[in-house]
Amino acid sequence: MLYNSANASLSLDCDVVVIGGGHAGCEACSAAARAGAKAVLVTQKLDTIGEMSCNPSFGGIGKGILVREVDAMDGLCGRMADLGGVQFRILNRSKGPAVHGPRAQVDRVIYKRNMLETLESYPGLTLKSGSVADILLERPTDIDSLALKRLASQDSSSAQASSTVTGVRLESGEIIRARKVVITTGTFLGGEIHIGLKAFPAGRKGEAASIGLSKSLKDAGFRLGRMKTGTPPRLDGRTIDYSCMPKQLGDIPPTPFSFIHDSVPHADNQVLCYQTRTTSGAHDIIRANFDKSIHIRETVRGPRYCPSIESKIKRFSEKESHVIWIEPEGLPEHTDTVYPNGISNTMPEDVQIQFLRQIPGLENVTMTQPGYGVEYDHIDPRELKRNLETKRVNGLYMAGQINGTTGYEEAAAQGILAGANAGLSAVHRPSSDGSDAKPPQLELDRSDGYLGVLIDDLITRGVEEPYRVFTARSEYRLTSRADNADLRLTRRAAALGLVRDPSRLARLDSVEADVATAQALLERVVLSPNNWQAKFGSGVQVCHDGQLRSAFDMVRMGFLRDNVWAGARDPENAEPSQQTQQPRQGRPAARSVSDFVPEWSDVPLGIRRRVITETMYLGYIQRQQREVTSFKRDESLQLPTDIDYSQIRVLSREEVDKLSSVRPDTFGAAKRLDGITPGGILALLKYVRRNGHKHNVAS
Asked: What residues form DSSP beta bridges with 85?
């Protein structure tokens, strides 16, 4: 039964309580504290704060941009990954900068130690060991039981708040009162681990699930679904034969995640990763034992883009092998454990060791921990507002896997946004004249970055499978790159008081000044077509239209280049391991910028990367900026939550049902709903403009 504190005296112990010490919780509690709130992080065990439950890495395609965006707003995970990173790579380097994916292999011990030490000394934050059993709510005294049942049974996305959060009750009976509560329970909410046919309650191997909290949310009217994920077995690296496996090298020099770092501690001693593959023999063993795993049932959806090896074998039966990345879990002085990325599974332990020993290099391997699956509860994210506060309960926020997402990066990104908004709301005190009745909030839309895309997808479309970010989800990839997250978000966060590190803004000022100086170097060299032709020689044909052009123009047109994205080099033979920038087919054979602008070689690599990227894609970026302007116009048209869509006669039954179910908060969000026709959108626009005075909707 949900604990009801309507008649209890309100004696605040803190402003914000954050439940759960995973990646979402770490970002949420620190963001709330930066917002000026007195925050408390409650987690089962303090020594598991910042635990990397699955893969020992951060970033990747799409995900790496999220980490950069979190860092740009003074978040923690990017800095912690830099300090603990043992191999750094830019994925998708052979493609354009818009889809580059920073990634780091991370030492589990260093990451967790640094995160705990940072939070222990974080101003305004208290860490507390405990398990939350109930959410404390205050309901209006004049509401009757029938009204409560009606409100609790509301459709997820059209839910109206029937109560306000006032704190939490721990399983020990202790009560912590707070203005706001952020739930970031990860896989612990109703968690159940599967190994073969065995199933037992747990959120992570060796740690108890949160059962009471799951029931508490159900009692409040939240509709919970089930999702699943998995992790591969852990291996003893001393029992692996690496001689038959291709090496995977880190980038030299490594590119840090954090905008305040110029380098990383382990740049000169990056570990090696390796590649191997499954075999038909391994597949046969797994296929013969499908009946010995309860986890591979299709009634609960798992991650499509990070499937288990069982799912790969079932879905891609024609493939004889699948790639496995052999990734050390840290520096040799900390661990011998290896993470075999690509073979998460829930087979019985004896079956796991059998198929592992069919894989090249693992013939004599020792398994230190079996792979396992986890099923867990999640809410329908359409229950959430854009600031990640729930529609059903005032002051209650959700972040991470509880919202149906998967991955450290998605969790951390939601955590910083939910924690910041909870903190900003908790400390807000309206002025006497009521001119600032609403608290300032950190709300991002799709054009602001991948965090905006993530939130918009969750609250408008919901989830049918664990959601992960990748670059194809964004319409504005050229303007939402990994290299410009600071320019997009740092000042915006600072205006809300969310940037505590003063060096971050100073560094951003310096970067902008350096970019302007570097661009001026390119614009200073101006030549006629004949002079450019003379310098290029007969191998390059320039446009002889009599127009003077600068080096900046020649970079934009592809005549000049700079291999700023050249890849890592093997320290043994100095051979490039990644594609360097080459002219596209039909383009002129480009010459180096430094041949024409001698001072260019003195410009720092990071600044050159920014300038070259912006210059090469200038025309496309300008076009995308116009699209963003149009998008912002649609997003500025707010839709009231009480529209009766059945009164818009032009809408079809399907469109009425969809709009009534989701209840989009902006005209732009309505346009993005599946099944809404252009005619329906036009009818909606006419309706809200015609009734704008009634609904207080601006046209």
From this structure: 106
- pLDDT above 70 covers a percentage of the chain that reads 89
CA dist 383 to 394, 415, 664, Å?
12, 17, 11
How far apart are the C-alpha atoms of 212 and 135, rounded to whole Å?
10
Q: What is the mean pLDDT of residues 528-534?
A: 93
549 DSSP β-pair partners: 527
Side-by-side strand order, sheet with 101-106: 57-59, 101-106, 85-91
State the amino acid at position 345 in one-letter form.
N
Model pLDDT, residue 429: 87
Tokens in use for 111?
């990451």
Exposed / middle / buried, residue 399 (Cβ in 10 Å: 0-12, 13-18, 19+)? buried
Please state, in angstroms and rounded to a whole number, the distance separating the CA atoms of residues 493 and 35: 10
Q: Where are the beta strands (DSSP E) in 119-267?
A: 125-129, 132-138, 163-170, 175-183, 192-195, 198-201, 224-231, 234-236, 247-248
The CB density around residue 402, as the number of other CB atoms within 10 Å, is 29
Q: How far is CA 87 from the centre of its chain?
A: 20
Backbone angles phi, psi at 135, to 5 degrees: -95, 130
Mean pLDDT on 39-62 = 95
Q: Which helix (H) or strand (E) holds 156?
A: none
Among residues 399, 4, 379, the alpha carbon closest in space to that of 159 is found at 379
Q: How many CB atoms are closer than 10 A to CB 96?
A: 16
